[in-house]
Automatic annotation (TrEMBL):
NCBIfam families: HAD-SF-IB (TIGR01488), serB (TIGR00338). GO terms for molecular function: L-phosphoserine phosphatase activity; magnesium ion binding. This is phosphoserine phosphatase. One of its GO terms (cellular component) is cytoplasm. Pathway: Amino-acid biosynthesis; L-serine biosynthesis; L-serine from 3-phospho-D-glycerate: step 3/3.
Amino acid sequence: MTTTKGLLVMDADSTLVQEEVIDLLGEEAGVGQQVADITERAMRGELDFKQALEERVATLKGLPESILDKVYARIHFNKGAKELVDELHARGYKVGLVSGGFHETVDRLAAEIGIDYVQANHLEIKDGVLTGRTYGDIVTKDVKVEKLRHWAAENGLTMDQTIAMGDGANDLPMIQTAGIGIAFCAKPIVREQAPYQITEPDLYKVIEIIDSVKE
């Protein structure tokens, strides 16, 4: 049995990928600006995330399930995503995604580049149509911390052996809990409080941070 050397847990929207998937769904629903405004306020920490998510998902009521394929085609990985995951795997690390986005798209992203763990929200779909609701537990900032700890424990790792990265206020507790916490092209509140920063959209820079910390 191979021993896991470390764990990276990151956010999906605006971290692993360039877009905010909920905003793309909002555009398809014809309420793009309204949804984007709520997202922006939630990311800055001005709104309760759960409430903001419910408000945004409600605007998607009545959209056909096929909208998810349409939106998936518009998502782009940030530079260095696959290279980062491959390099971490080569070094004996596991990689997880904790997203306030949706399993319906995040699972596909994870599968595409070989990510080990995923936790996200579920959109409720009935008879091929979005109901405007989610089901199951909502991924809040506390859940992000919980997953970081859980996946670390599952691999016999201490917090010192973990890395967490994200861009929004929802990611801050997780970033501050990990051994190496990284703000990725982040909102001001996150940049001010995260121990490490990546200011250009290149995920492979995580490797530079890991190597500099180990020196």
